[in-house]
Amino acid sequence: MFILAIDTSGQSGGITLAEVDVGSFRIIESAPIAGGTFSAQLIPTLAALLSKHGFAVKDLGGFAAASGPGSFTGLRVGLSAIKGLAETLHKPIAVVSVLEALASLTDRAGKIAAALDAGRKEVFFGIYEKPAEKSDRGLRRKREELLSEQDFLQRLSAEAPALVITSDGAIAELASTSGSPIKAVTRPGSEVMARIGAQKLLAGKTVSVETLDANYLRRSDAEIFFKGIR
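Below the sequence we write its predicted structure tokens.
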């Protein structure tokens, strides 16, 4: 089965074309999309990638979507594209949290804390449990939430010992004051989304076009504003 993964959650994004089967996963190629050009470049980049490898859109058997947290505008562009393709082709969709993708970037079993800088002195935070059994490699999500920096440090203390995984230097520095072990990584992109999405697609852990939505964790400025004037 050929799948397409789209990640438009960050300042830059990308798409990955991969071939998956039970027990196998192969990335065919990934293509970056520069920040600020998601709406203009996503579809042309996808068309060029498929054409380069002799595929048509109808050859895609499923989709993996980076669901956030991240850029409100970026996530809407990526998820709208997947919705349109999946609805037209009647193919399944697997959603992958960016925090989940972060937490997957370690072989260590046990409790894993994934953290991203959310700006405004806040942190996107997720706690996962990775089982030690080799036959069960899936991450088990305990929670995902938006925390103040102070609450983030308190949560780390409450969840200790947990390995903190982050792609943001400021968060790594902040977490270091808690005494927690830290692993700094590159922010996961569409290739990681494809790998996790492939596992979910094969396991039947999918969502419908109607229920596909972004995992913002934070309300938009517009929502906050209108709530404040009611």
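The chain has seven helices and ten strands.
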